[in-house]
Amino acid sequence: xxxxxxxxxTDVHAVFYTxxxxxxxxxxxxxxxxxxxxxxxxxxxxxxxxxxxxxxLDFCKAVNIFQRAGSWGNFKELVRDDEKYKKYINVxxxxxxxxxxxxxxxxxxxxxxxxxxxxxxxxxxxxxPKTNNCSFITVEEYLKKLDDMxxxxxxxxxxxxxxxxxxxxxxxxxxxxx
Length: 178
What we know:
Blueprint: E1 12-17, E2 23-32, E3 37-43, H1 45-52, H2 57-69, H3 72-79, H4 82-94, H5 96-105, H6 116-119, E4 123-127, E5 134-138, H7 139-148, E6 159-161, E7 171-176
Parallel strand pairs: 2-4
Antiparallel strand pairs: 1-2, 3-7, 4-5, 6-7
Helix pairs in contact: 1-2, 2-3, 2-4
């Protein structure tokens, strides 16, 4: 478990011992689903600030507004001013690589990691139980594929929303299943 007693991104941790005395560590984030996007990250705005950009007041304000809003349409309504809206979108967009890495692998949340060697995923396994199709790629390859995908607001391939019954309490990111 993480220090906050939550589950890490790693579902499977394995160490392969080779004959040349080089250990290979495999930490796998597993998504077993039939849907096109799946929840990969549920955290409060204050955690986004703490992990991603604790000293960027605009970023912290933007994610707090999003948490209250629960959707990008509501976010725009809460901000009201078009210039501020564009500014907040651009600020969040500038941190998207760091957000994506944290959401997919768990990397970056130093305060919560009890054991970085086991709790930060370096591979992603997706499986569709209906078709039995599987994909096994490195987190780096997946992040590259995300970067190449069409973007939603704010420049993210993720869907930004909230978990059922948690509106105004938590931000949920849903990742595309490739």
